[in-house]
Amino acid sequence: MVALSELIPPEAIRLDVAAPDWRAAVRAAGDLLVADGTSTDAYTDEMIQNVVDNGPYIVIAPGFAFAHARPSPAVRRTGMSWVRLAEPVEFGHDANDPVDLVVALAAQDSAAHTDAMAALARLLADPEQHDRLQSAATPAALHALLRAHDGVEEPAAAPGPASAAPATGRTGTEQHKILTVCGNGVGTSLFLKNTLEQVLGRWGWDRQVSVEATDTISAKGKASEAVAILTSREIARTLGDVGIPVKVVQDFTSTDEVDHVLRDTYDV
Length: 268
Fold this sequence. Notes:
40% of the residues lie in helices and 19% in strands. By secondary structure, the protein is of the alpha/beta class. A 5-stranded mixed sheet has the order 1-4-5-3-2. A 4-stranded parallel sheet has the order 7-6-8-9. Helix 2 runs antiparallel to helix 3. The mean pLDDT is 89. It comes from Streptomyces koyangensis. Its main location: cytoplasm. It is found in: Cytoplasm. Keywords: Cytoplasm, Kinase, Phosphoprotein, Phosphotransferase system, Transferase, Transport.
């Protein structure tokens, strides 16, 4: 398991950065990845192009953009950076703008950073921790908060619906599958996967419902295997009609919103 504080070292954190627009904000996060040898300038260009091509779906929670692109030769190793902006900027997202925090991910694959993504989701979903991160005076102080949060488990929550778990497939042995989808399959879709799995765990449905994070191209081929797709509004528009329900989630860190979407999916 790679801890969040390992993927975001102190030198990959900058606070109160001035950025005139979203491109500059993403480039500031990308420059930190370049400076510590995680990726090259070409990957920063790819992160920006990802937003140009797919829209502002990387703005996955109010005030928070998770910048990333597909794994590519421009990624030298898996790592992340953290940029807190001096003034928020608009990415063009209809619900979560303006953005004052940009976290960038450069991933060689979707495996190494799974646990760190889950930790980041829990951290940003906690209002008290979020306020501490926003008020951290130095990169060292912010990194200490990340380090303190490493290994913290999800707190106990109220149980899910009283209804029984969903029936399995016709053979009685198949799981239900839900796809979480983004443009690249290793960033925001994995973030949403972690939040959905938290909710399924609370419900006691985690053995009956599996979750797979994937990209838009693969999702169209895999749709027939799933009962639903959870994604952003921008990616939902890109997918179009895939033959199964496509559910929009605005805040990928919100277990409450995902709980509501899951209840709507299963009518419980």
